[in-house]
Amino acid sequence: xxxxxxxxxxxxxxxxxxxxxxxxxxxxxxxxxxxxxxxxxxxxxxxxxxxxxxxxxxxxxxxxxxxxxxxxxxxxxxxxxxxxxxxxxxxxxxxxxxxxxxxxxxxxxxxxxxxxxxxxxxxxxxxxxxxxxxxxxxxxxxxxxxxxxxxxxxxxxxxxxxxxxxxxxxxxxxxxxxxxxxxxxxxxxxxxxxxxxxxxxxxxxxxxxxxxxxxxxxxxxxxxxxxxxxxxxxxxxxxxxxxxxxxxxxxxxxxxxxxxxxxxxxxxxxxxxxxxxxxxxxxxxxxxxxxxxxxxxxxxxxxxxxxxxxxxxxxxxxxxxxxxxxxxxxxxxxxxxxxxxxxxxxxxxxxxxxxxxxxxxxxxxxxxxxxxxxxxxxxxxxxxxxxxxxxxxxxxxxxxxxxxxxxxxxxxxxxxxxxxxxxxxxxxxxxxxxxxxxxxxxxxxxxxxxxxxxxxxxxxxxxxxxxxxxxxxxxxxxxxxxxxxxxxxxxxxxxxxxxxxxxxxxxxxxxxxxxxxxxxxxxxxxxxxxxxxxxxxxxxxxxxxxxxx
Length: 549
Known about the structure:
By secondary structure, the chain is an alpha/beta fold. The chain is built from 22 helices and seven strands.
């Protein structure tokens, strides 16, 4: 028994080290994108007032915008988020403290690496948490399989390399599920340990201030727990109903100070980007995310002769693994030692999926379009898949798990080298398109209606800064488009620019159709002609104008 336990822990350590290597490898390779710009501003102690708006400024000023500002308190960061963003404050407060820690700067000089490193740490911690979850729910073997699955999961690696608040709620949801299953086991044994109940409540209180979608996980846990309690109502220990009710109320009460802020966030323009429901798209988008949690080969922005074969491999692998998982789940449900834990985790997962469908079909917000939002049920998904693989026939299990881990590892290598889970809006590709003439002075103009437009433009600007020569003038401008783009054209006509005989002006114009771009613009009192061969669209359009004296 002791040797088996020691062997499990040594295996777990090796799995965690592998997961850490994958999450920290090439951590700052991918370009920083729109959502990470938001993280950067608030984590560095800044907000959108630190961005020069409605003026022309050189690209060199970006280093000042993305430098660390004097340390702020968490209430100050929370006030910034309440005013300028749509997120709860906990992750941003933690990241603000993290980036100013001396040891973080000693490990790496890149501010992008510093911003992404804390989510990577939480991603590594989640591997240990998922082991703990399955060790309690099933067995140490199931815990090892789930930990290995998460360590090499391309989805988990992708989220761990994002400077965003996804791995922290994954960690907290996994810990909350540990508490839920422990409460469930205690109730079955007709006892209730109050420190377990308080720990479960504390984790959920923290989760509420990490991401609004954590509320979905909490509701699913509460429904699952209450359903179990109702089925066992004649054997519940004394005062257990009161204690659990008070714990739930404690979690809800802890969020009251932020409740008004959250309700105001629901009506902000930053939440309107989610498309209206399409009756069939959410279903296949959800299924596609399940596939990406296990395998992700290079199919994005690839020629068909690469994308098609890799897509077929992903499809065949997914069908094979789905049959394997289904068979394992049936065994778990029929085993007297695992059926209750399996039902608890399945119930949690199904309820979260139903909540997603309610948001999509009744609230008209298709949250399935972004794979990252599926983090809410990822811990239970990983736990169930790991347990279902761990319960198979030994020799078949050994071979199958090697195949799953190897494909996961290969997929994660594609993720860290920017061949899978590429950044939305492709800032690197946009910058390369804009830099088509490296020796020509360049100006990027962004017409903005919301701060989301500003963040998007900043992501393009940072990618441009990396590839533009310091000797060639590169300028940026963010002009408010109110009431329309006519105000942008007017401001552009009088914008002060260094005297130059040639200038390439790129106009990033969210919401503007191609035919609505004027054929000629005046930039700093100089006529500029549209280049119709240089028009691109990556969710938003951007167009080149050539200015010649």
